[in-house]
Design brief:
Blueprint lengths: L9 H10 L25 E5 L2 E4 L4 E4 L14 H13 L10 H12 L5 E5 L2 H16 L3 E5 L23 E3 L5 H11 L3 E6 L17 H12 L2 E5 L12 H5 L5 E4 L10 E5 L1 H4 L1 H4 L11 H16 L2 H22 L4 E6 L2 E6 L6 H16 L1 E2 L6 E2 L6 H21 L1
Parallel strand pairs: 3-13, 5-6, 5-7, 7-8, 8-9
Antiparallel strand pairs: 1-2, 2-3, 4-10, 9-10, 11-12, 12-14
Helix pairs in contact: 2-10, 3-10, 5-6, 11-13, 12-13
Amino acid sequence: MKEAQKLNITKSRELFEEASGLVPGGVLGARKPGDFIEGEYPIFLETAKGCRLTDVDGNEFIDFLCGYGPIILGYLEEEVDDAVCKQIKEKGFCFTLTQKFQNALAKKLTEIVPSSEMSIFLKTGSDATTATIRIARAYTGKIKVMRCGYHGWHDWCVEMKGGIPSKFYEDVFEFQYNRLDQLEELMATHGDETAAIIMTPFGHPNHQKMQEPNPGFLEGARDLADKYGAVLVYDEIRTAFRLRMGGAQELYGVTPDLTVLGKAIANGYPISVVTGKKDVMMAASDKLFISSTFFPNSKGFVAALKTIEILERDKVLENIWEKGDRFIEKIRALLDKYDVGAELTGVAPMFYITFKKDETGAYKGKRKDFYTQLIRKGFFFSPYHHAYISFRHTEEDLKLTLTAIEESLAYVKEKY
């Protein structure tokens, strides 16, 4: 199998070299070259439209990262952008006081999200997950937290502990997805002091296979929260407005006390939400302080209202599930055809191709070669993060992607 030609990423590398003297690490977080495959992926992008990206060197890609999740419709979505631009030009967006869009979006969420009775609006997922912990502690008068999943970069939950005193996270305990026994043990020890159980209701751990809930897992966590008087929090940043409009809680039928929303709610505009049961949410009214100059900015509200309108009007999630189901079934058939240790996990709107670990460590080379071939062919996946399907991925886009996946698997099969 012929190896795909290496991309020209000269301008990206020049910009990164310049950035390294201006920004710590050149770029921050999960956008560093080491979070992809160094020397193969672009580092700086120029434009995006629909499901396609173009980097600063002019390379075009069919994108499956969707901005790490927010792009549910597509890039440069005219209806959403026009609504925001109209608000900016005609009325403004950063005011001293709140605009009416707050009420409109809060009302809409009560119609969509099973747990939603009241809402607080913020800007990022980390803002919102941290707010839920503060609300839960104020509501219960307890301190300890049980957590499962990635919940952002703030002190209580970030994986890298540099710069954080241990006392800021010493009351936070981790359990693994689908390991109800671990949560049961933790609650048997700490339950009477536990303010919150925060979890992703659909398993999407960093760098690992995705998981749907085992029978009884979500129900068991709900029962444990009730037994010990803890607040059950679902981090639905990635799953709401994608697995279902109302998130994984709608899909699986288990309702938390608080829910964190973000990502797809506004198709890329910055807004996040804490929504939930009124009695718990009211702790934010008089027992704690949550505020930011930018939380009431109307751009995110306007974008969210328009995005939700389009999601409902155009039956976007039905479209994504239908074409996504066909797409991942064909991927699964290719993985069976080319037995190189690759595995497919996830569901139609969000999925992940990983490689089974082996004693020799060959899986790392297979992973690198597979994703190198894909990026060289013009298909933007990450070796270390799951993929998404957006509304603007066409059947032709997915057909082209399947061809590239097959060629990349054949390359790995021949090499190994």
